[in-house]
Write a structure and sequence with these properties.
- With about 450 residues, this protein is α/β, with parallel strands linked by helices.
- It has 16 helices and eleven strands.
- Helix 4 crosses helix 13, helix 6 crosses helix 12 and helix 8 runs parallel beside helix 10.
- The structure holds pyridoxal-5'-phosphate (PLP).
- The site of pyridoxal-5'-phosphate has 13 residues, from helix 6.
Length: about 450
């Protein structure tokens, strides 16, 4: 199976044909999942002693399995945080795979890591962080948040006073679920400020003042959100930075979703203060149009990350030698062997230039504003709050939670759209509402109108 023969050539052609077809298609289906037993019935036994052959396996993929996925780049997929990787980035993902690059150490992956670093320099420049700040691409926001918080905790524990303390971090209920998951992995406690609206410096100060003596001792970091996943809300980053500096706390900004909007002039001011962060998470696979998976973590002082993450092992010593000098991504996050997952972003940025990125992100923000207007003009629906970044929360007047669920499934089953409900905290109550998140610049005003009208 490592030989080059006629079957290989044929399989390669088939894959290229499929790729060209997929990439030039603008009207792909919304797609929907199937139960595993149904899929099994459709495709039968695929892993056998002799193999079923590439042709058959690929046929099964095209005929049954591909259709059981919901493409994230469909213009009427407005659920969760969808995606719209550029075609240049997707094509270079193929190049990344075919090049077989080990992206952990400069010694093996210098060319690929160089490209990643060029893209990273641009990302760092968007944050306005000081000279010396730098970052690394991760598998996603969860891995980036975890890498950052482990870095913060290790830095904190350098002081013997805290060696045996279980850490505590503060964030708000608007923070992404992965922050809680990450705290569990890092075995730190988490204190949630009970507001889904923007977390202000003042709220943080009050929360800290109300901590017990021991809690205050255990507190080492604050996680602010630069664009909540649910509603696109950006915390008061300047105010929070102020408190963190005064209290000597690590200031992490989770901008996994919102980070792409740092390039958008219309909203950049909302992120003021992000440059004061100790670490920032940005997911290029969300609003920087990279294919999955591509997250990133940026550190004000990357040496702290190196102290926390650099792996020791006799078989790894060679990488520390003179001949291997250069940037080693493995030293700055939790993963060792890694693909150079920033490479597709680099190629797309180099191809299109950063102005096109700006325009595409601005379009997402504009679509949210357009959706807001359409909602205001339709008597059946109303905004829950003003659109923020590219998120729109709205209610269908008179609907119960099960109506939203039913509507979602109906639209999905028809292959028309994927728009999922969410919950919004209203006083002490969680209300079920509908939500759009725009990423794909190819979503049209007509798409939005049709979706709203389907709620009649
Ligand atoms: C999506 C998201 C995450 C998680 O990122 P993954 O790439 O899914 O691991 C974390 N934080 C925020 C704010 C997000 O929007």
């Amino acid at each position: 199976m490592h030989k080059i023969d006629f079957d290989l050539v044929e399989m390669t052609m088939d894959v290229m044909k499929y790729t060209i077809d997929r990439i030039s298609h603008t009207k792909q289906k919304v797609g929907k999942p199937q139960k595993a037993v149904v899929l099994k019935e459709l495709v039968g036994e695929t892993i056998t002693k002799e193999g079923i052959g590439g042709e058959k396996a690929f046929k099964l993929w095209k005929k049954h399995l591909a259709k059981a996925n919901v493409p994230v780049d469909h213009p009427r997929n407005l659920a969760f945080v969808p995606a719209a990787p550029t075609r240049a980035a997707v094509m270079f993902d193929l190049v990344t795979s075919v090049s077989s690059i080990h992206g952990a150490y400069w010694m093996e992956g210098a060319g690929g890591i160089f490209c990643e670093n060029e893209a990273m320099k641009w990302m760092v420049s968007l944050t306005g962080m000081t000279e010396g700040a730098f970052g690394v691409f991760t598998s996603g926001g969860t891995a980036a948040n975890l890498s950052a918080i482990v870095t913060a905790r290790e830095r904190w524990r350098e002081d013997d006073t805290y060696k045996r303390e279980k850490g505590l971090i503060i964030t708000s209920i608007g923070a992404h679920s992965s922050v809680k998951a990450m705290a569990k992995v890092a075995d730190v406690d988490i204190l949630l400020v009970d507001s889904e609206e923007e977390l202000k410096g003042e709220d943080l100060r009050n929360t800290i003042e109300n901590l017990t003596f021991h809690q205050r001792k255990r507190l080492f970091a604050v996680v602010a959100t630069g664009g909540t996943t649910n509603a696109g809300i950006i915390d008061d980053l300047d105010g929070i930075a102020e408190v963190c500096e005064k209290e000597k706390l690590w200031f992490h900004v989770d901008a996994a979703y919102g980070g792409g909007a740092l390039i958008a002039d219309s909203v950049r001011h909302l992120f003021n203060g992000i440059e004061r962060a100790d670490s920032i998470t940005i997911d290029p696979h969300k609003w920087m149009f990279s294919p999955y998976d591509c997250g990133a973590v940026i550190y004000k002082n990357p040496d702290y990350a190196k102290n926390a993450h650099s792996q020791e092992g006799s078989y790894l010593d060679i990488f520390k030698d003179e001949g291997a000098h250069g940037f080693n991504p493995a030293d700055y996050q939790i993963q060792l062997t890694r693909r150079v997952r920033g490479l597709p972003l680099w190629f797309s940025l180099a191809t299109h230039g950063t102005d096109r990125y700006k325009a595409s992100v601005e379009r997402g923000i504009e679509l949210a504003q357009i959706a807001g207007k359409i909602i205001e003009e339709n008597p059946n629906v109303e905004l829950v709050r003003e659109p923020s970044l590219s998120c729109v929360l709205y209610r269908r007047i008179g609907w119960q939670p099960e109506d939203y669920t039913h509507w979602t499934y109906e639209n999905h089953n028809k292959g028309f759209a994927l728009v999922t409900p969410t919950k919004w905290k209203n006083g002490d109550m969680f209300e079920t509402v509908s939500r759009f998140c725009f990423i794909n610049p190819d979503t049209t005003e007509e798409d939005i109108r049709l979706i709203i009208e389907s709620m009649a």
